[in-house]
Amino acid sequence: MMNASQRQRRPDLLLISSVSVIALLLFWEGVCRLQWVDPLFLPPPSSVFARMAGMWEQGALMDHILASARRVMVGFAAATALAIPLGIFLGTSLRARAAFDPILSFLRPLPSMSWIPLSLLWFGITETQKYSIVFMGTFAPALLYVIEATRNIDPLLIRAARNLGATGPQVMRMVILPASLPQIFSGFKVILGLSWTCVISAELVAAKEGLGFLIMNGKEFFQTDTVVLGMALISVTVLVTDVVFRIIENRVLAWSR
To answer: Where's the ABC transmembrane type-1 domain (predicted)?
Structure first.
């Protein structure tokens, strides 16, 4: 919980952040207006906003945002849904972890881009292919976070629960899962950002809509304002999803405060 002094500082910090963003945009606009930089290489913010307004009126902009967001959410949900139970199991079983470690060591270094050729062969240029890229790029890191969160639980808590007569499922439900959830949520916030990297990689290669497609399409037609717009929308969308994720985290982990 924030104390009174922290709550009083928040408006001041927000003002400082807002001023810094406005100053950056004004400097950027001025550099372009003075023709210190060719607009072909770096368009001014006014051109980017004009492009955004035009695409918004056409209805195409929201379609690209929703397409990318849907792919991220489906792939991220699938990866975390499998990583949580498997990670808790591996984190509590030395033998299972020893058996699975070689597989995880093989999957962990592979970037999402390396899966694109195989995914195109398996699924073609489909939505399933985009979901699979996000899943394959985030599953191994998510699994590692869950394993480490489970292994970091104080063994005294588990022994105390067992000494008090708790069964295996009760220990899992009342000790292991609650104790590991804060660290799992912290890790998954990082994984959520990684999911956007994965989906943009997939959309840059094979897609007909999405923010990655928007960037690549702008590049093909030398529309650098479209490229910059796509980049800016990725950042804004990630910030929005991060805020939503924090709200969910605060509700789920309300007991920890």
So the answer is: 65-245
Give the model's confidence band at 4: pLDDT under 50 very low, under 70 low, under 90 confident, else very high.
Answer: low
Instruction: Tell me if 200 is assigned to some domain.
Output: yes
Which one has a higher pLDDT value, 50 or 206? 50
149 falls within a domain? yes
Q: How much is the pLDDT for 9?
A: 63
pTM (2 d.p.): 0.81
Q: Domain range for residue 130?
A: 43-253
d(CA 11, CA 159): 47
Contact 181, 253 (CB under 8 A): yes
Q: Residues 69, 241: contact at Cβ < 8 Å?
A: yes
Q: Is 115 a domain residue?
A: yes
For position 151, which CATH number holds? 1.10.3720.10
How confident is the prediction for the chain on average, in pLDDT? 85
Q: What is the pLDDT of residue 3?
A: 55
Token code pair at residue 3: 């104390």
- The predicted-structure confidence for 56-76, as pLDDT tens digits, reads as follows 888 888 998 999 999 999 999
Token pair 């999803």 is found at: 241
